[in-house]
Amino acid sequence: MIAIVVAAITLIYSFTGQDDTAYITKIQKQREEKDRFMRTASDSPFADNFATYTGLNWFAPDKKYQVKARLIAIENKKMVELPTSDGKTKRYMEYAYAEFKLDGKEHRLLILEIIDMGPYKGTLFLAFGDETSARETYGAGRYLDIKKPRGQNSILLDFNEAYNPYCAYNDNFSCPLPPQENLLTVPINAGEKNYK
Prior knowledge:
alpha+beta, seven-stranded antiparallel sheet, globular
């Protein structure tokens, strides 16, 4: 009987390990693709001088920071104006709140919808700050791309995919700052770190 229990536990752990390995490989591949884009793309923030690019810095992937959040619909959605890094403002439409538990605390982030004309119109946008901001990570916050859920009341937030806005690398870009309600009181030791 003990042998069966040990075999079952070993089997469970071996599957978990394979899942973690596949997940880490996926995250590393995304990071390699972003690094290649930064080094070579015509719309990279380093396009004026690729020789200055020294590579991005990341926290090690950690599945703890892949969280399932409840989507809380917003009735009577209103326009939100976010200040930008260059002293202007940018307008978004409220979309929903994402509520989740991390480090034993409940958190709530506002997801916004891009309303500007262009290729990103209608896509979702999440800017946040946390206890690592202006220390290990960019002081003006980081971003997460959010896929629009279809008829779901939950969403997966993967902070391992959090990235810096372009103004972290080049002052010529205008980047929206996180709304006040998206300043988390815990460190998010995941995703992109400060660019050095």
